[in-house]
Amino acid sequence: MFLKKFEKQQILLFLGAMALIGLPLLVENTSWAFLIRILGVMGIYVLLALGVNMVLGYVGLLDLGFMAFYAIGAYTTALLSLLGWSFWICLPASVLVAVAARAALGAPVLRLRGDYLAIVTLGFGEITRIVLNNWDGLTNGPRGISLLSSMEVVPVSVFGFPLVTNLHFYYLILFFVCAGLAVCRRLDRSRIGRAWLAIRDNELAAEATGIHVTRLKILAFMLSAGFAGVAGSIFARWENFVTPESFTFWESALLVAMVVSGGMGSLPGIVLGVVLIVGLPEVLRSDLFQRLGGTNIINARYLLFGAILMGMVIFRPQGLWPRRRTKFPERETA
């Protein structure tokens, strides 16, 4: 029975991988080519949602300022690219800067709990956006940073192959999404992952069993920032333009909604939450659906989207794909 279930999962994973790899190639020169862009954006949000899930889904910490570290990663890559740094050097540098900023924030604020922590992280996110908006000498203020007008910017390439089109960046994003899912899956099944879940369920009981709560919270905070740094670095070179308006509080709120709607702590749920909140509205407002349904679908897309979310809150409060609890075999007693 177990082998049959395992084989079924392997077949589904294989078919899904083939669809993600082959679908963009099939639609590249058709009227469905817009799906490549949408899938790429969804991949960026999957990386961000994995980072939020690490603190919200695993540790149970409500973070409303996660986009600040996404912004730090994006601006770090943009500024270093203007100096002539390669993308493959900017990427780890952006991760390190985002992780360092996250650690500096986490050290004092992780003493807080519940709503107080959410308020502090929200404030940090808004402070970061305001600083980026007002620091004209470094970030160019609300005008943003453009990488298209500088001759110092080194094109992104993989083994000498330049990444230019949406299709090229889609495969780059897909690679990092798969790597991020693999890392999260390994952490989920590790001692650290089990300790995080214990902290989420009952922090006092976890501390009583010998778990170093503060240290593991900071670890989750820092690792989650790594996902934001990677996503921000890719976003900066894909768009070749960054501006503070891309990193607002509402984006952080949407990330929390993706994790909660999909299922906190569930990796398939995270992907499903991104599809629902990012992919569905983009598809509904596309030109193809406008031609199929006139302006009715376009005007009603937010009504449809809101109805889906309300129905999910009422009938599936645990999320569309909730996390399954690990079952351990019972020990035989003599």
Q: Give the helix tally.
A: 13
- From N to C, what is the helix and strand string? HHHHHHEEEHHHHEHHH
Rg, Å, rounded: 21 Å
Strand % is: under 5%
- What value does the average pLDDT take? 85
* Global outline: globular
Describe the structure.
The two termini are 28 Å apart. The chain is built from 13 helices and 4 strands. It has a domain at 34-247. The strands form 2 sheets. A two-stranded antiparallel sheet has the order 1-4. A two-stranded antiparallel sheet has the order 2-3. The protein has 334 residues and is an all-alpha fold.
Features:
334 residues, mainly alpha, 4 strands, disordered C terminus
Helices, strands, pairings?
Elements: H1 2-27, H2 34-58, H3 67-82, H4 87-109, H5 115-134, H6 136-139, E1 145-146, E2 157-158, E3 161-162, H7 166-188, H8 191-201, H9 203-208, H10 213-239, E4 241-242, H11 249-262, H12 267-284, H13 287-315
Antiparallel strand pairs: 1-4, 2-3
Helix pairs in contact: 2-7, 2-10, 2-11, 2-12, 3-4, 3-5, 3-10, 4-10, 7-10, 8-10, 11-12, 12-13
Summarize the structure.
This protein is an all-alpha fold.
